[in-house]
Design brief:
8-stranded antiparallel β-sheet
Length: 324
């Protein structure tokens, strides 16, 4: 599909947030920024106009409002690979804002874990869960260089369960060995046979505003389809999960795998969800933005961004040109 100027600029900023955020990944570091920009632009970015988007092959649907961008399951996996992440193969979609002054993302994943009981809804021990996270990360930190270490600081939002929505939410505060602050906001929507993970990626300064944006524009537009809702569970035929709400907070089915693989498996699951996002000033990064987008935009498109470039004094041209 054809990409608007605003959309192209937003895609560059999205990429920059990942480039400036993820801790070192060898393969990612060896990939040129121009190649990353090209590969991201090739993804099938869907622009919202109020249309209904299918999620999880009939599992759920999302009404995609104006000002939002969407990638399907296939391109969600590709996006993570391009930006240095490791896909879980459970991705069903990701939503981004199109506005140039917003940098957040909402990731959707689905795992058929079996029906998760909500019996623990009034008995979630946040203090005990936090200790589990801290103990696990401290143990693994012993085997990691300082720049790759993770330190859990506490709850930003302690775990809570919404009985009406059958959803579990929480947010953790942490920092890495380089002093970067880490934060995201997790929701788990229980279904008939599994769990939909909804993860908001933001930065500490804007988390509250972005969380409100997610709730009003994304979660409110998301719904499970008939036959997949929590209340559609048939106890006589449907499989039950081997863990409850506390186990879900610690990684869900991954907790069972960790019993065999050790604490490192649990940490990997934690890191997968705990995207590190550090948003730098747009002005300071404009030189890099030019290098990333220079070979993809015409001079006319670049002028449309209303930014100062080193070639601002040159006459516009219809041909593609390299810019510093």
């Amino acid at each position: 599909m054809k990409k608007s100027r605003s959309m192209r600029f937003t895609l560059t900023l999205i990429m920059l947030s990942i480039l400036t955020a993820l801790f070192p990944v060898t393969g990612f570091a060896e990939t040129s920024t121009q190649d990353i920009a090209t590969r991201l632009s090739a993804l099938d970015w869907v622009e919202g106009n109020g249309q209904t988007i299918d999620l999880g092959n009939g599992l759920a649907e999302l009404k995609l409002g104006e000002g939002l961008l969407f990638l399907n399951d296939k391109d969600s996996k590709a996006y993570q690979t391009i930006t240095g992440g490791v896909p879980s193969d459970r991705e069903i979609g990701v939503v981004f804002p199109e506005a140039e002054d917003q940098l957040w993302a909402v990731y959707f994943e689905y795992e058929e874990t079996g029906h998760v009981s909500e019996k623990e809804k009034d008995k979630i021990d946040a203090k005990k869960l936090l200790k589990s996270y801290k103990d696990g990360t401290e143990e693994v930190n012993k085997e990691l260089p300082e720049e790759h270490r993770l330190y859990v600081d506490g709850w930003d939002v302690a775990p809570f369960y919404d009985e009406n929505l059958h959803s579990l939410s929480w947010s953790l505060l942490a920092h890495d060995g380089m002093g970067n602050k880490l934060i995201n906001y997790n929701s788990r929507v229980l279904t008939r046979l599994g769990v939909v993970s909804v993860v908001l990626v933001s930065d500490p300064e804007h988390l509250d505003a972005d969380r409100k944006m997610m709730e009003e524009q994304v979660l409110s537009a998301f719904q499970l389809k008939e036959g997949h809702r929590y209340e559609d569970f048939d106890e006589s035929t449907d499989k039950k999960a081997e863990f409850g709400l506390s186990g879900l907070i610690l990684g869900g089915a991954g907790v069972l795998a960790a019993k065999k693989l050790g604490v490192f498996a649990t940490l990997l699951l934690f890191l997968k969800k705990f995207w590190i996002v550090v948003i730098a000033g747009v002005g300071a990064l404009w030189g890099l933005i030019k290098r990333l987008s220079g070979k993809k935009e015409t001079a006319e498109e670049a002028a449309g961004l209303e930014m100062n470039t080193d070639s601002a004094g040159e006459a516009p041209s219809d041909s593609r040109e390299d810019r510093p």
